[in-house]
Amino acid sequence: MRDELLFDADLKCYDKTLIEEWVLTFAQVCDELGQDPAEAQMAQAGRAVLKWAENVAIPIRQAVNVPWVCRGSLHMLADDLKVGWHPDYKSRLGAILALTAVDDEVGGK
Q1: Do 90 and 108 contact (CB within 8 A), yes or no?
Q2: Among positive and negative, which fits the CA dihedral 95, 101, 107, 108?
Q3: Percent helix, strand and coil across the chain, each rounded to 5?
Q4: Which of 40, 43, 84, 105 could form a disulfide with 89 if both were Cys (CB 3.0 to 4.6 A apart)?
C-alpha cells in the first residue's frame, strides 16, 4: 500500500476471496460437529479452523505468495469479526465486547 503497488479494490477483492474460502472451511468444520456439540468439541473445531488459517496460502497476487500476507489478512478480518475460529465466536466475542463497552462507560478498565 505504501508503495502504491496495491489498490484499495485489490484489497477488497482479496478480503472477499479469503472470506469465501473461510466460509467453506468453517462450514465444513461446523458440519462435522453435529447437533449440540460439547464445549471440548467446539474448541477442537475452533483449533482446526485456526490451523487452516495459519497454514492456508492464498496469494494476494500471482507473484506475491508469501504466507504471512494471507495469515495477517485473515487475522485482520477476525479482528473485524468478519471471520472467526470457534464455532460460536460471534456471540462469545459479542458478549465480551459488550462487557468491555459497559466497563468503559462506568470508568472501568
Answers
A1: no
A2: positive
A3: 65, 0, 35
A4: 84
Q: How many residues does the chain have?
A: 109
**Cα distances (Å, whole numbers) of residue 44 to 18, 41, 78, 86, 101:** 22, 5, 18, 8, 29
Considering its fold, how many domains does the chain have in total? Answer: 1
pLDDT of residue 40: 94
pLDDT in tens, 61-75: 777 778 898 999 999
The set of cell numbers assigned to 22 is 473461510
93 belongs to a structural domain:
yes
> Which whole-number Å values give the CA distances from 18 to 35, 39, 82, 95, 101, in the listed order?
27, 27, 10, 26, 29
Contact 33, 42 (CB under 8 A): yes
Q: Quick check: is 43 in a domain? A: yes
pTM for the full predicted model: 0.77
The domain of 42 spans 8-105
Predicted confidence band of residue 5 (pLDDT cuts 50, 70, 90): low
